[in-house]
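Take just one protein record:
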Amino acid sequence: MTPNSFCTTCFIMVSTCCVAVAQQETELTADTHQSLAKELVDILSRTEIQLRSCVDEQAVTTAIPQLLELSQRASQLKQRQKALPEPTVQDYMAAQSLVGDFNTIVQAIEQHIARLEREKLLTPELRKILHLPN
């Protein structure tokens, strides 16, 4: 084997491996109903943390950029979900493991919103970000 043919062979092998790794990474990062459900729970969890920190007007002002980013991520997630095929029975079963966390987080968010309403901290901007009526 000549040095040039050896280099060519190595290049082909490395290229093949790189293509295989790139395909695996694409497959690993491809959206599924379960991956999007997990991402939604993460977004809601981060939203709950931000709302929990809203204890005065300054904290609300500080939280607004993060809440806006989370709202945008949720909107993007919704669009990605629309691109998926209809969920299968297996998809529904896999999502069941997240229902408890989802319900707990949503309940906490509702409590924070009620508290913010009582404390007159639910600004029009915050209402808009949280998709609440005026």
